[in-house]
Amino acid sequence: MLTASIGTLTAWLVAFYDFPFRNSLQWLLMLPLAVPTYISAYAFVEFFSFTGELQTLVRTIGGFQSPRDYWFPEIRSLGGTILVMGMVLFPYVYLSVRTMFQFQGSNVLDSARVLGAARWRLFFKIILPLVRPAIILGVTLALMETLNDIGVVEHMGTQTLTFSIFSVWLNQNDLAGAAQIALFLLVIVIGLIAIERYSRGERKFHEAKATSSKPKITRRDLVGSSKYIAFLACLLPVILGFGVPVYVLGKYAAADISGIFSPQLVEAFFTSVSLGIVAAIFAVIIGLLLTYSLRVTNIPILQKLVRIASSGYAVPGTLVALGIFLPLATFDNQLDGVLRSTLGISSGLLLTGSGAALVFAYVVRFMAMAEGNLSNGFNKLSPNIDMAGRSLGRTRGQVLKLILLPIMRPAIIGAGLLVFVEVIKELSATIMLRPFGMNTLSTHVYDYASQARVEDAAIGCLLIIAAGAVPVMLLLSVGER
């Protein structure tokens, strides 16, 4: 409800109205998406706690001496967890709704205005039904991220099924119990997807005129107090979702700037970069094979298999880790047993101990991003290009290599970049599958935060945020075209 409300309201304001700093706020509203949820939780606890800036200001203004003298909501609670997740994930709804507004002509809205619809009636009776699919899409993505989370709920003291899988497996060493909880959570995930598709049914909204002839939405100037209310309504989510984490972590990082050269952080940085590059390469190669196969063939079963192969993003990282660990660990043990009995040598944990399992998990989880980006790129290319190449005696492989791939370079780079950055941010699968002694940026930050040493993790947090800001700007530039 929080992500849907904030995302829809802010998208409506920047799409339909002009108010102070509207041009800046329309892209600033995307920035909270660059902050991983667990990093936002660390910053919120520091900022809203008794020793944080906000309560210090309250005590200074009110002249209070102790927490018994005044009431302040507890940030480490279910409500605090919801606030953190909502402030970081609302851009999913904002982006999808804003994009739909950009493609939506003003015919329906102009007709409603002519018939006397006031501003709020126009919003509730016309605009909300039109953008309902976009709202559901954004909320579904936010729900998937919520189900995937481990770092926020642990730091905020909230019990969830996802964290229970992590705790039962690693803390209680009960793999079977973790698998049972994971199976139940998987049923919930499948149920969410089924409910979303059922709720859409066969509903479709379209205009009679062609897209090219749709009159663009004309923004109206807000006057009086309305323009300041709209400005604050768009600014507050930016401050809470992006400003608070950057301020808190930036303050800690500035106090210990030399920490950027610490051996642990440097090693974690290069490990994350290496894993991200390898995972991005594999995801792009497999994504190209899948999307090009659909382009040159028309086999129904293949389309279903591609959809299944790219559905990993809907599955929480803990489930992906558990599903991958069981067969790979079995393979490692059986291979080691065979080599010991026949050759007298040990292969050790060939897959689960080398980082290969991590790369596998990343490709499974983020294949949807690579496949979706590449599919959009192929869809923009006319099939006549392939036919022209084939008519000149080239094979399908040669057409792909010599003609399509050079044209598809922006889509390929974009797909690899998105996967790379998601790998940098990923925590739940990484913390469960990382080999002993291996640290990434996300686990480096998590290890310090779990010891209540957020200030020591500040530089690592800022590096992750900086990496996350790159695809946000990419998404924004795509949306503007």
Task: Summarize the model shown.
It is built from 21 helices and 2 strands. With 481 residues, the protein is an all-alpha fold.
Strand content: under 5%
CATH superfamily of the largest domain: MetI-like
| SS element count, helices | 21
The helix/strand series, from N terminus to C terminus, equals HEHHHHHHHHHEHHHHHHHHHHH
**Total tally of structural domains:** 2
Lateral arrangement of strands in the main beta sheet: 1-2
CATH architecture descriptor of the largest domain: Orthogonal Bundle
- Gyration radius, to the nearest Å? 25 Å
Look up the CATH topology of the largest domain: MetI-like fold
The rounded distance between the terminal residues' Cα atoms is 30 Å
3D structure, described in words:
The protein has 481 residues and is an all-alpha fold. The chain has 2 domains: 1-253, MetI-like (MetI-like fold, Orthogonal Bundle); 256-450, MetI-like fold. It is 73% helix and 1% strand. The chain contains 21 helices and 2 strands. The longest helix is centred in the middle third of the chain and has 34 residues, at 263-296. The protein is globular, with a radius of gyration of 25 Å. The two termini are 30 Å apart.
Keywords:
73% helix; MetI-like fold; mainly alpha; 481 residues; 21 helices
